[in-house]
Design brief:
The chain has 387 residues and is α+β, with helices and mostly antiparallel strands. It has 15 helices and ten strands. It comes from Nitrospina watsonii.
């Protein structure tokens, strides 16, 4: 069952596969189960050969993915998995693109030219001669990839890859397409939520003492049951929200959280927009909410959720908030993000699998809501004071 029919014109069999895969994600509670869903559903859906995912510390200053804590992989030889962290920082095309665009999914051959990715691989092998290229069973055969990250912090991410025979890798012609990108965009909220839940729960099991450290972090953090009773909250959360451990979440925040939680409970919803963030207004300012479900069995009969509240200060969140404040709907927000990326309406239509006429209609509505008449005025209206 699904709440809202998928608004994009992708084949019905893809739509049904997306829905089935989402259902499989929400049945995962271990790494082994998640690997199984990747093997049985995700890789076949993209006709891909491998995938990997983990924690990421994106470093935009050096245009690097920074420290990468790989968590798990599917279709990757074990002898390569432990060495992959050395090669990932060389894929600088990803942070370079994410620094200037708002797209939730990027792909070689669509967003990143194939020759750029080939040069990045060449540089890695040139600077790391200890890795013999012809015997590197994972990186060398990769012809192209899809990648998605949790925005705006970019704390964890996923890569899906297609391989080619070594002698054909540079001329491999099985490209990822806009269809693949759109399918991953629609899977993304449930996929990243499942990965984050399993990873976080594993770490809480291994490092239970770290929970105590949440008391002193500068971000407001709370653990609460699905009945909205707070199990734990740190000092910052208590001061900002005005509740303590054992009390109920305030009604307005409860309403926002209930709506967000419902997205990850059956019947599942496939969102039309992958860019909308969740905000909460308080006298102290506007806060962005980050929500993650912890493993059900660790906290009794009810699911437990981890909530983070961060002041809206970064450009990505400020723009997103500005779009919501003027009343842009989800489609208009998605189109606006692509306009800000510099894409033309025809390219946006192809990207979102909608008609150019629908893009033009929504661009007109965006301009009306923002009180602008030209693309230049739109850019100016959406620019931030510190840009």
């Amino acid at each position: 069952m699904v709440q809202n029919f998928c608004p994009v014109s992708i084949p019905e069999k893809d739509y049904l596969s997306i829905l089935d895969t989402i259902t499989q994600f929400h049945g995962c509670d271990t790494r082994e189960a998640l690997r199984g869903v990747f093997s049985s559903h995700v890789l076949p859906l993209f006709e891909a050969d491998s995938a990997l995912y983990g924690w990421i510390n994106m470093d935009f200053t050096s245009k690097s993915l920074g420290q990468v804590g790989l968590v798990d992989c599917v279709g990757v030889p074990q002898e390569d998995f432990n060495q992959l962290s050395d090669s990932i920082p060389y894929i600088k095309s990803i942070p370079t693109m994410l620094e200037r665009v708002a797209r939730p999914v990027v792909a070689v051959d669509v967003d990143i030219p194939r020759e750029v990715f080939v040069k990045e691989k060449d540089l890695f092998f040139a600077e790391n001669p200890e890795y013999v290229r012809d015997s590197w069973l994972y990186l060398n055969p990769i012809a192209n990839f899809l990648a998605t990250f949790d925005q705006p912090e970019i704390t964890h991410g996923l890569g899906i890859h297609r391989h080619a025979p070594i002698e054909e890798v540079d001329r491999y012609d099985k490209n990822f397409t806009l269809r693949d990108i759109r399918v991953l965009e629609l899977l993304r909220p449930h996929l990243l939520q499942t990965i984050k839940t399993i990873i976080l729960n594993d770490e809480l099991k291994r490092y239970r003492s770290l929970v105590d450290a949440l008391v002193d972090v500068p971000t407001g953090i709370a653990l609460f049951h699905s009945n909205m009773r707070v199990l734990f909250c740190n000092r910052v959360f208590s001061e900002v929200v005005g509740v303590s451990t054992g009390q109920m979440i305030p009604p307005e925040l409860m309403r926002i959280l209930s709506k967000e939680i419902s997205r990850f409970e059956p019947p599942y919803e496939i969102q039309s927009s992958p860019v909308e963030l969740v905000f909460y207004q308080l006298p102290e300012g506007v806060f962005r909410l980050n929500l993650c479900m912890l493993e059900r069995k660790n906290w009794g009969q009810d699911p437990c959720w981890l909530l983070q509240m961060k002041p809206v200060e970064d450009p990505y969140s400020l723009r997103n908030l500005a779009m919501q404040e003027v009343g842009l709907d989800k489609v208009q927000m998605e189109i606006s993000c692509l306009l800000l990326d510099g894409m033309e309406p025809v390219a946006i239509a192809a990207r979102l699998f909608i008609s150019p006429e629908r893009v033009h209609e929504n661009v007109k509505k965006v301009y009306e809501k923002l009180g602008v008449q030209t693309r230049e005025q739109f850019y100016s209206r959406m620019s931030l004071p510190n840009e």
